[in-house]
Amino acid sequence: MSEPQPESSGPRRSQRDKKIAKPFASAPNNSRSRKRKREETDTDNDAVSDTDDVEQPESGEEGDIDVDDEEHKIPKARKSKGKSPTKAKSTPAVKKPRADKSSLPKAPKPKARRGRKFKEGQDVYDADQVAKDTRISADNPLFNAIMNPASALQSSAEDFLESLEQSPGIALAELINLILRACGCNDSVDADQTLDFDGIVSTLDDFTEVLKQENSPVYPLTSKLPVFKRFRKSLSEWIERLIISASDLGLLYTSQLMETLQQWVVSMSSSQIRSFRHTATVVALEAETALCDVAAAVDKESHLVARQREGEKKRKGKGGNPQLDAKSKEVKNRQHKLKAYIKEFVDGVFVHRFRDLDPHIRAECVRSIGLWLKKYPEHFLDANYLRYIGWVLSDSNNHVRLEAVKSLSGVYDQTDYLHSVTNFTERFKARLLEMATSDIDLAIRVAVIQVLGDIEIHFPLEEEEKEKLCLLLFDEEPRVRKAVSSFVRAIWEEELEEKLAGKNKPTDTDKNRIGIKVLSQLLVKWNKALDHLSGDTAESEIGEEDTADINDGEKQSKKRKELVALFAAGDRGRVALAVEALWDDVEPVSDWEGLLELLLLDHSANDDEDQNGQASRGRNKTNGKKNTHDFQVDEAWRLEEAEESILLEVLVTVLRLAKEVSTSGKKGEDETVSNDITRELIKGLPRLFIKHQSDQNRIAEVLVLPTLMNLDLYLEMRMITAYSSLWDDVVKQFTSHSSTKVLGHAMVTVRYFMAATSLSNTNSTKILELEDELSTQLRDTIAGREEIEIASFSEDEVLALSAWCLRFNVLAGARNMTSWTEEDEGGKQSSAWDIVSALVERGRLGYREEETMVERALNVLMLHVMWKTKGLSVEDEPTPEEVRYKEVLIEQRDSLLEKLSEFAVSTQSNTVEGVKRAAFKHLLDLHVLFSPANAVSSNNQSLPIATLSITLDDEMQFRCAGYVQAEIERYAEFLDDETPEDENSEHSDAGSDEDADSAKDNTIHVKPRRRKKVHKESQLSDRDILEREYLFIDIVSTFLRAIRAGSIHIQHGAVVLAHFGRLEVAFDTCSRVVVDVLREESLMKDDPDLIVAVISHAIQEAHTLVFDGLVRDETNGVQLAKLLSTCFVVRGSQLSVLRRLPDQHIVQVQTNLLSWINKRIAGYEKNKNKKGLKNAVLFFRVLMPLLSGLRSRDALKVKAHMDQVLEEAKVEITSTAKVWEPQRAYEKRLTAIMAKDNPQAPKPRKGKKKTTSGAASEDETDGERTNDEDLPNAPRRKSRRVTRANPVGEDEHEHTADEQEAPVTPKSKPRPRPVKRSKTPSEASGDAEMSLPGSPIDPLTPSEEGQEADEPEIRAEPHLPTPKSARKRARTPEDADEPPVNGADDVPGSPDEVEIQIRRKRVRH
């Protein structure tokens, strides 16, 4: 094998005089590697080598690795051992022609692709074992080389090219077989098949037929086997090395390598087999990527040769250089061939596969075109190719869209080709903005934002588009905020440059302050835009013009008082999130000292500002100090009020971030930063309090600043007086403001002060002063009034009392105020409890302007009782003081319960809606608190509250359920969003029903009024709607909490269940709590009658909504029935059955509901109300999910009950009437259940084409819809009796109908002949009415089952007569004792018929 090698290498050099350089000459591997290493380390100053010089470090590594890799190829290189020294000496002769560097096409070396070394200790690659594990043959050396982790891919590619020169057909066959193995196909092609391009399709068809026989063929690209982990990367690397090496050797242009590869790959890429299609696409795309590298290098060479020719022409005149002319022609020829190869791959593979059904293939195509855009922009960076990426931006698969965005990441960095992307940018910019703001995939949003940032540099966005992108700074996702921060920084820098342009020689301080000013302007602008988008503006508040409706009287400000629990002082706002994102990008954000310094200045303009617009100074004094030059405010950085407010939020966030960052720094740095902040705030806080005390939004932010201080520093610096002054400032804001936000922040600061134990003396004094101030405010407000319950209060007094109650609620939420509340100074004055109780009594007066005051007063009393309960003692022998304590608690609790009951559910109450809502929640909360279920701890020990337990009587429970029902109806009207077209359609339906009763007409005429109101409320903002939903869910959740605690009986949960599916998702989630409680009742308390009652009542109420026209159809009822059916069986882990509802109770649910609906049906039938009858019959669809768990005998009882009540109702049911389809489907389901687990019925054989209808409908959970009306000629039900005259029983027809409802893949089994004939409508209706298919009383015999199993053979017998039983009516239960007619027995004396008759009589008697 070593002799032919030098013979083949000599002629190759002599025959190709154009190819001067032979870097891959057929020589021993070691010498070739050393030669490459020397060539790649050569340096030159020629222009063509500039790119290669940059890549030399990688290329050098490449050469070293190739030498190492060749050490593993020593056994294979035995053939050239003897020639090695000679070839090594001749190496310089090969390099000699490289003196002219410009003549060599410099294709780039594969970047970052190292030859793989064999790791020490790693298992040696065993091809046979891999073939056994993967079921892919190991007969292809190329495939084995790619699979082998220790193989040198460069050597493998070079060996293949040597083989291609010597025997092209065999080498190309190995290449195609490599692709086949990569597809998981073990078939092979020979040299003749490989080059027979016309037979490629037929050959591939043969291969695919073999692959179709395997259920799940394994192919490396998608396999999860560890051995294939590196296959994708190795395959790509091998293809790249192959094409680049072939280009260097010239084989890419002189051999059939590319033509053969393209013919096979293009054909395979359109195969129906996914493995063929996917693998061929990957091979084509990787080959195209390598061709792009080669083409880009050849283009550079072409440009260089052109420049050399121009230089030669200038130097020698018109003659030029014939050698350069020949070289130019040769380069152009290569360019032409490369472009042809590239075009073939694009047109043959990419254009078809970029829209493949498989998202993995689409993603491969998009990722590859992104590489082509970077590697060969001269060809691909064009609108014709960019449009493919634009189209894929709307792909349904997340990964495909992400790859499309990634492919655009480097496009806008290539400034030489920006003119090519102008049209693409204008066309798809809107789509990119949409993806950045609303794509469901987070990674896509981040990538798109980066692309839009690149677009902004070269193609400036419109102001509206910039604003949309900048609003993402407030996005809820941290990665999105961080990604957009660089874009925001560019906007900020642009605005800053404009500001500084008009400033003459600004100082560093001016630049810093102007930067802060610009940042504040941008944040204010974007905040307003976001408020406008969310509808959270002053104009979005509900107006006062409509006071007739109960809901319209609740203004947004009043609704928000209900949401106090949602606001917390520690919650971060949108500005805080923006500051966190900008911390590392925008310089002023991290400069907290500059922010504080700017905020301490007085930015208010003087009243005597001159008319020339000159810069005016602020007030001369701030906090008693004169203004110096440092305190002068320049117009360039004068802050507006909105800007000051937002900068205060920025300051708070910046101080927090500064402390957090310092904790992760050096040891002791956090303490240093904290002390620095504290020293600056000690000096600045008094001025900030004075400056912003009149603005509640700004003072709320100022109140947070003390929580960022190190209070111990006051003691160390001996500044107790300053600390006392700080306490006074906080208390002053607490007692003078009524904003929830201000009071919440002030309370957080007070608690932070109280936690400073080193300053406990000052803290104790100041908290007592706060309590005294509250007491003084309360008594001053009601001074001079004897009977507060009926006294008249001015508007200011009502507001003052309401604010006082809010302050007390905030304080009592964090501190036990019971002693203070009951303090009456020995009877000299009224206690706070008495005063607040008197204010609560005013709730029965129904004054709307006092609604807020009474609500907050109720909350004061509720908090007092809860704190009082918490203070109960656990001693068995209480002291007299403890006994008195409990007596007072009981007295106060009962007094409060009396008021709450009157306000919430009393029929004589004149309470306004807000007070009623608050009273209802407090009433249930008190009963939950003192529920007997809460009187025992988890270890069965009695709690102190055990002696105080109370229960809610039945009447009050019904009233509470009625209140919840009213709230549900009110909220349902609020959500009613039916369109006028629906309204018109319902009126037309009503008009067509001439016999509709008057009650139904009245219901329909009520709807337009509700829609009118909804049209007005549809103008509410999203925030208003969300707050309305919160108030509603708050009531429902309180009611459900009482049910779960046992304070309200579970039977009242039907009020909530009846509206399942009608309202929002949050309500449906709450409804499931009732079902959970029902399951617990079934599992723990074993009370099935209760479950039956609740389910029956809930289903009835749900369908009553359909009768009343409040719900369109039975869909919600069906969903509710599915949910309630889970109560029949309680399952545990791994679906184990813990408890099952007794069968008789499941039957009772069906019989109760059947009796109820049949009364409705009888009434509508009597009144000829067609629409009501239609809605009533729809109820049978609701009943179907409740049949789950029903057994055969129970199904028979249900069917008998249904037949009985329908007969009593004297309802005529026709099998052809469309209106009775739900009833027929229900009856069919019952029949299936009866046939399913009948012990006397024969079991259907496995693997049969046809099964019983019971099996077909066993897993059905919703109403069945038949297709009879769509198939008028379909055969109706026949007699289920199976004889030779009637070989097809009715069960088969039922299954056929089921198959029509749920199509399945048909098999080749022929259908029985009798089925071909369809009955007339009269015959079909007669059969449907008179037959009882699948009844357990009338089973099939085993012999009949065997007959049914042999249907094809029966049909094949020529002597059998044509079946005529299709003309005969089926036997009914009334005909059970009658002898069969002659037509029923076409073969008299048949033993089968005799046996069937005997069995019928035996079973029936």
TrEMBL record:
Compositional bias per record (Acidic residues), positions renumbered to this chain: 41-69
Domain SCD: 350-435
One GO MF term attached to the UniProt entry: chromatin binding
Region (Disordered): 1-122, 306-332, 606-627, 978-1018, 1232-1405
InterPro entries: ARM-like, ARM-type_fold, Cohesin_Scc3/SA, HEAT_SCC3-SA, SCD, STAG
Pfam families reported in the protein's UniProt record: HEAT_SCC3-SA, SCD, STAG
Protein name in the entry: SCD domain-containing protein
